[in-house]
Amino acid sequence: MNESVHTVEAMPTERRPGCPFDPPAELIDAQRHSPISRFTHPGGKPGWLITGYDLVRSVLADPRFSSRRELMSVVDFELPPAPPGEFLLMDDPQHSRYRKPLVGRFTVRRMRMLTERIEQITADRLDAMEQAGPSADLVTAFAKPIPTMVICEILGVPYGDRAHFQEQIDTFMGGEASDEEVMAAYTATQGYLARLVATKRAHPTDDVLSELTGSDLTDEELKGISLLLLAAGFDTTANMLSLGTFALLQHPEQLAALRAEPALIDGAVEELLRYLSVAKTFNRTALEDVEVGGQTIEASTTVVLSLNTANRDPARFTAPGTLDIRRPHEGHLAFSHGIHQCLGQQLARTEMRVAFRALIERFPTLRLAVPADEVRLRPESADIYGVKSLPVTWDAA
Amino acid sequence: MSTARLRVDRGRCIGAGMCALTAPDVFDQDAEEGLVVLLRAEPAETRLTAARMAAGMCPSGAITLGGPDSGSSALPAPPADGCQ
């Protein structure tokens, strides 16, 4: 039964020219063959690649698949366990020990209460753009600063430290820096956070990190949690805002519909999340032999789950390659699924709803300032997809 | 008519908030822990679709829908196939 299994030798390194929003052709092709393919990890170890919606969803919800970093069988050396607090790479009960104290800070209601503050932060950015305009790089003027400021305020990172901080995270999330540069940026950020945790413990302020110093978590653990929240809290949303704006500008009829009917924003955000799926893949390792889609995943084998392809699965979504902001919400996997589903998803939704609406209201004539094929995109090697810069312009009032 | 009955398992809940977002008059999250709170175990007929949707979207399987006409807590069937 295994002879006809489709094989993908390596993760594709590029997207098709002219199709910046579509998953790489090799992955769409793999999905056409079957929802699960044989795959060789970069270190040469055999694995599986899952591209179909139903199978990706079921593996994400299956406790027989582990998120522990030290179990990932993807390179030819052993990976160390995740540092204390970085619970994305842990299983329960360690994972929930860290996640639990945070959950109450990121509820639907709490995030709604933040709306006004996010509107204010957004308006400040738009004012600055307008004053410096009539053109801007949307990434540096808008998409990055908004989520950075929001997550830093929630966590309690002092205002003056934010720019430096954003730079470091850019280095280790951008997918283009050398290993040495990534390590240096990571170490610098860890050092900064260690000092910040010590400060909050000595002089607590009104923020999540200060609150957490009152729990039984150690400084080392708080440092790890902070790093995860900061990195996850803005690189993802920043890329959704910039790539999402690019996608709307390339689909003028969708943009016009959203302008004409602002109430479409909730659906538009869900559709952009599905269509763009900037968090592209996650890995899981089988803890025992598990049958998935007619194949046996042997214990200790790591599977790559392709979220962006799952969100374009024609077996799940009608015309999956079409951006349609009126599409009924059909349960995309952009925030993953299972116990690791994004902790900050309600924050991300609030930020996107506020920011997209305010941007298109403020600049009715917003357009790309360069031809679409000159927009510089993040390489596939980056964990989070997006644009590196998005030159835009508008008619000055 | 038969009624569908919802159950929530706060031990499984991870506080993602999909239920409170999808069916806010049926589910909430408590202020302290952020875990699911069931507001209506037997939602009105008009809220059943949203409640079923919320159950299907729950990332940790913390919501189950029982009762004569409930079927499973899976997502509603996807629409007919299209093209990529």
TrEMBL record, chain A:
Similarity field? Belongs to the cytochrome P450 family.
Recorded hits in InterPro entries, A to Z, give: Cyt_P450, Cyt_P450_B, Cyt_P450_CS, Cyt_P450_sf
The species this protein was found in: Streptomyces globosus
Alphabetically ordered keywords of this record: Heme, Iron, Metal-binding, Monooxygenase, Oxidoreductase, Plasmid
UniProt keyword annotation of Nucleotidyltransferase present: no
Asked if the record carries the keyword Oxidoreductase, the reply is: yes
* Listed name of the protein: Cytochrome P450
Q: Where is this region: Disordered?
A: 1-23
* GO MF: heme binding; iron ion binding; monooxygenase activity; oxidoreductase activity, acting on paired donors, with incorporation or reduction of molecular oxygen
From TrEMBL, chain B:
Q: Which Gene3D superfamilies match?
A: 3.30.70.20
Q: Indicate the segments forming the 4Fe-4S ferredoxin-type domain, all copies.
A: 4-32
User: Per the record's keyword annotation, is Transmembrane included, yes or no?
Assistant: no
Keywords, A to Z?
3Fe-4S, Electron transport, Iron, Iron-sulfur, Metal-binding, Plasmid, Transport
- What cofactor(s) does the depicted protein rely on? [3Fe-4S] cluster
**Is Iron-sulfur set as a keyword in this record?**
yes
List, in alphabetical order, the Gene Ontology terms for molecular function in this entry.
3 iron, 4 sulfur cluster binding; electron transfer activity; iron ion binding
Q: Which Pfam families match?
A: Fer4_13
Give the protein's function.
Ferredoxins are iron-sulfur proteins that transfer electrons in a wide variety of metabolic reactions.
Stated name of the protein? Ferredoxin
Organism this protein belongs to: Streptomyces globosus
